[in-house]
Structures are given as C-alpha cells and as structure tokens.
Amino acid sequence: MNPNGGVFKYALAYMNFQVIIHRDRFPDDAGQMVRDQAIKRIDEAYEIIAEAEAGIPDDVWMHPPQEDVAEYDKMLRKVRLSLLEDGVYDERAISLMKAIRCRVDGSRSECAS
Length: 113
Fold this sequence. Notes:
Elements (H helix, E strand, L loop, with lengths): L6 E2 L21 H11 L1 H13 L6 E2 L3 H20 L5 H14 L9
Parallel strand pairs: 1-2
C-alpha cells in the first residue's frame, strides 16, 4: 500500500440484505423472527469489524479532511433521499441506516436530532 496507497477511513456503505421467501412455507411471523435474531448478533458483527480494523497498521490509514467528509455526507444523504423518493427505501430503512451511522459516529450532525 505504501507509499502511494492506504485504507480510506470513511464508511462508504453499510451492508444490508433482503430475504425473499415463499410466504406459504413459513409462519406469518418469520420475518420478525429473522430481524430479532439479526439484532441479537449486531454486537458480534461490530466486534468482527473492530478486530479486522485493528489488524490494519496505523500508518496505512488515510483520514479524509473534515470538509471532504461533510461533502461526502451531503452526497450520500441526497442518494438516500432519492432512493426513498423512488420507492427503493422506505422510512424504516432510512431510520435504521441513520441509527447505524449514529452508533458508529455519534458526533455526526444528523445524530443530534
């Protein structure tokens, strides 16, 4: 990676997934059961990420200037709102992603509200 590369310290995307099932083959509350199990394991997921990041040497991290981060945040907000408007996301998805962003970095301006 050195001298001209590195790991950019900015969360560009958050993983999400959808499960498509044959409703007639599962109980009515199957979706909620999957969500409940996923939320029980979220701390484990964060531990895996922290462990992976801890293995990256300090001199490899590239920290973007705060003004760049603010611009990236604005751009990604526009994308999320566009996806909401287009019906790709619903309000619950937007709220969940905000909760994740604020958990990762509670100093974000959107986390004050």
